[in-house]
Write a structure and sequence with these properties.
Elements lengths: L2 H17 L3 H15 L4 E7 L6 E8 L5 H11 L6 H6 L4 E3 H4 L8 H7 L4 E11 L2 E11 L7 H24 L10 E5 L5 E4 L1 H11 L11 H14 L8 E5 L5 E10 L5 E10 L2 H11 L4 H11 L4 H8 L3 H15 L4 H9 L17
Antiparallel strand pairs: 1-2, 1-5, 3-4, 4-5, 6-7, 6-10, 8-9, 9-10
């Protein structure tokens, strides 16, 4: 492939990211176009909570054997391995391959032995869809064992398109809407293998919002539930510091919050993992929305102060700034969010995401 052809394809992929109507449509189009630049035989695409790196329901899987979702996240959090997503997201490059990470000895990786090789895959390329230091999605590409490993050039091409995909995912986060329904939390219990064995009616209703009518089959949209259960186990075993919590946009369109904790008996024996699921509160979703609008840390502080009803003078005193500086921050915030008043700002960040919005047409994909 010539350099000119490669650049044209990257430009076309960039335009496709800008035109996609949903996260899943984005993943479908990027997958189709990326395959021409970086051939692959299987893949998993995840939109993520930028704070916890846990999934937010937009998941696309390609050529992965059924039933792998549960073990996928257990392995990610409970098995010591190389090229874990958390390490890729924190790395300088934001992309890496299994062959490089193991010195061309993939058998050293438990993921290769237990997950990739049984499905006929060899090398694996992982990348973080990262923009300005914030990760909005994750990518897992697989190549057939008979094919050549991913090259440095191919890693560079994935790295080149990663910020574009991240920008599109960030934009979807700022546009997300939900329903103004005041529900109480639901509770579900998962055994040590991560299998659901008990839940109340409210949890069942909210799980249906996450996974659709067939949620009991645990389609790909239930990935955040698998992931938060696995992370709770990792925290209980001292392998992760947590938190075992995430915020996600359900198939229904609204934001929900998942929290998981490993229980234990009075004698200290390990018990089941309890998961609570409930409509996310405005203060839980606002940090994601503020990141989506690219507000700086100081701008986020000013925005939170505005949401509490503080005047410019009060904000200045609290943050040790001049009133003039606070007004400059507010001007920048208004421009980024697309509002002109404090009331509009608070509504955009803390209220609008709880109003009924358009159906995103999320697709349910079975593992």
């Amino acid at each position: 492939m010539s350099n000119a052809t490669r650049e044209r394809r990257i430009e076309a992929l960039t335009r496709a990211c800008q035109d996609a109507g949903s996260e899943l449509a984005l993943f479908e189009e990027v997958s189709r176009r990326l395959r021409k630049l970086v051939p692959f035989d299987g893949a998993a695409w995840f939109a993520t909570d930028p704070t916890t790196l846990l999934g937010t329901c937009a998941v696309r899987v390609e050529n992965i054997d059924p039933g792998q979702c549960e073990t996928y996240w257990e392995r990610e959090y409970l098995v010591e391995d190389t090229l874990l997503f958390r390490d890729v997201a924190r790395s300088a490059q934001g992309v890496g391959t299994l062959y490089d990470a193991t010195g061309n000895r993939p058998g050293r990786s438990a993921r290769y032995r237990e997950y990739l090789a049984p499905q006929g895959y060899g090398d694996q390329l992982r990348a973080a869809f990262r923009l300005n230091g914030t990760t909005w999605g994750l990518l897992d590409l697989y190549r057939d064992r008979s094919a050549t490993p991913f090259s440095d050039r191919e890693c560079a091409q994935v790295k080149q398109i990663a910020p574009v995909v991240a920008g599109a995912l960030r934009a979807f986060a700022s546009e997300a809407r939900g329903t103004a329904v005041a529900d109480h939390p639901g509770t579900a219990l998962f055994d040590e293998r991560g299998a659901l064995f008990s839940l109340d009616d409210q949890a069942g209703q909210l799980f249906e919002e996450i996974g659709g009518p067939g949620w009991q089959r645990f389609p790909a949209s239930m990935t955040p539930v698998h992931a938060v259960v696995a992370r709770a186990s990792a925290v209980a075993k001292g392998r992760d510091r947590g938190p075992a919590t995430t915020r996600l946009r359900a198939v229904s369109g609204r934001w929900l919050a998942l929290n998981a904790s490993r229980l234990h008996g009075s004698d200290g024996a390990a018990g089941p993992t309890a998961v609570t699921v409930e409509p996310a509160r405005p203060e839980q979703v606002a940090p994601i929305i503020m990141k989506a609008y690219v507000l700086t840390a100081r701008e986020q502080q000013v925005t939170r102060a505005v949401s509490r009803g503080l005047s410019s003078q009060e904000i200045a005193a609290e943050l040790f700034l001049s009133t003039h500086t606070v007004r400059d921050y507010l001007k920048s915030i208004y421009e980024k969010v697309g509002v002109t008043t404090r009331g509009e700002l608070v509504a955009r960040l803390f209220a609008e995401h709880y109003l009924q919005g358009p159906d995103r047409g999320a697709e349910l994909v079975e593992w």
